[in-house]
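Fold it.
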Amino acid sequence: MQTIRLRVNDKIYKHLMWFLSRFNKEEIQLIREDAEFVSIQEYLKNELEELENGTAEFISIEQLDNELETTIKKYEA
């Protein structure tokens, strides 16, 4: 599957989105670059940079297990 990015005039945006929505999800997947998308993209970019720079902090399996148990107990009550 290929990815393309378009800059579309406001006058035709609705028409283009209508046209694209006629395809099924196996043919075309619409990815809206809203504020949430951009925020997640920036977060992941920063995480990748930390991994590549060797500055990422890792935790052990035991620490992860403890964090998960704490979170589960917090929301069980």
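Residues 48 and 71 are 26 Å apart (CA to CA).
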